[in-house]
Amino acid sequence: MRIVFFSDAYHPRVSGQVVSIDEFSHELTERGHEVCIVCPAYPQERMAGHEDRFRTIRVPSGTAFVSGEDRLALPWHSYDVLRQVDDFDPQAVHIHTEFSIGSMGRRYCRSRGLPVLSTCHTHYAMYMEGYLPFLSKRVGLQVARAWLRSIYSRDDLIITPSKSIRDEMIENGIDREFFVIPTGVDDRVFRPRPEEGAEFRKVLARERPGFEGAHLLLYVGRIGKEKNIDLLVRALPRVFAKDPKARLLIVGEGPYREELSQFLASQPLAEKVAWMDYQPRSRLPAIYSAADLFTFPSKTETQGLVTIEALLCGTPVVGVDEMGTGEILAGDVGGFLSKDDPEDYAEGILQLLLDPALRREKSEQGLAHARLWSIPALCDKIEALYHRMFNVGSDPAN
After folding, report:
1. 76, exposed or middle or buried, with CB in 10 Å at 0-12, 13-18, 19+?
2. Is the domain of 382 the same as that of 365?
3. Which residues is 318 bridged to in the sheet?
4. Is the C or the N end of the chain the one with fewer CB within 10 Å?
């Protein structure tokens, strides 16, 4: 089967959406399908060292005014791009976005008589305050809902990575067919790697002497205000006071990093916090395996891939009981769910840090639970939808 993905975000942009596209593209390719990704071109300096793994059509683009990390495709290139898509002759089209390239993909499907199959990856109502701060929360919510209705109300089938996003879209008045398919994680890559984790701890201790023998907390992800990382920061004084061996490693980049790092540098706890830039996904299993505990305070996750990655590496998680994280850790499986309250969040962290037996129990529990999100099982569902929606035979060679 020849499959085209349309997305307004792809490498070198780092996001859960990009990971989703990569994971499914890799698995589909291994199954004998051909994948083509239509995505923005990024400035040359950002593309340095990156090589596209799959057939990719890069659309000339400009900066997205609400986010310096993102790009918007220039519309006058649409004709040439869609001609290249025609040359690929897709049998299935999957739209992963709402913006310029998403519009391009929807136009392509409708003009060729194809159904519009899309995935909504983002809970936009919860992001509006960060991206459009000049709007009140109430107005921002109304804008997000009206905008999403204008895009998705004509799609034929909408995939969401979690039930909470599906329910939110239905409440917004989008009356279409929905299908919940989480993004899968390759459990052949994300698995416990104790030896690599131990080596990473040695390197970290050499670079940061105060981290030798530490109880290591870890945050991996985009550093934006919408990730609610301030909750973790407000919990740290209580954690460090109760457990003097506790330390935090923050891995990632984003628009809030400079402000956050300056704030932490001005605090007495600065020496107990270390930073790393975005790391290649191939290196993340060792980093997860090195940590005693993964801390992820985000309330806006449609799913929370990093939570699953950490669990698959045997690292318990303390998250907030909202959205995708709440679904993954429902019943405190593999860690603890907290209220959006620094004292409650600190308590969840301390329970696990100060009780090695409980930590081991949560590690084993989470590892078994996270295998429900293995990429092969979830890719079966994606394949079945493509066959049904586009009337393509089940033979991968078709």
Report:
1. exposed
2. no
3. 295, 336
4. C
- pLDDT reading at 126 higher than 80: no
Tell me the per-residue pLDDT of 202-238, one tens digit each, with 9 for 90 and over.
999 999 989 999 999 999 998 988 899 999 999 999 9
Peptide bond into 12 cis (omega under 30): yes
Mean pLDDT across 341-358? 97
In this structure, what are the phi and psi dihedrals at residue 160, rounded to the nearest 5 degrees? -125, 145
Number of Cα atoms under 13 Å in the Cβ half of residue 81: 29
User: Which amino acid is residue 267, in one-letter code?
Assistant: Q
- Separation between Cα atoms, residue 106 and residue 155, nearest integer Å: 8
What string of DSSP letters covers 24-54? HHHHHHHTT-EEEEEEE---HHHHTT---SS
Q: Nearest to residue 397, comparing CAs of 106, 144, 32?
A: 32
Q: Give yes or no for a contact between 389 and 115, defined as CB atoms under 8 angstroms apart.
A: yes
Parallel, antiparallel or unpaired: strands 177-180 and 61-64: unpaired
266 and 176 in one domain? no
- Domain range spanning residue 362? 194-372
On whether both 98 and 240 belong to a single domain, the answer is: no
Pairing of strands 293-296, 177-180: unpaired
- Cα gap 48→43, rounded to integer Å: 9
**Tokens representing 101?**
């390239």
Co-location of 220 and 344 in the same domain: yes
User: Does 212 map to a domain?
Assistant: yes
What pairs with residue 4 in β-bridges? 36, 93
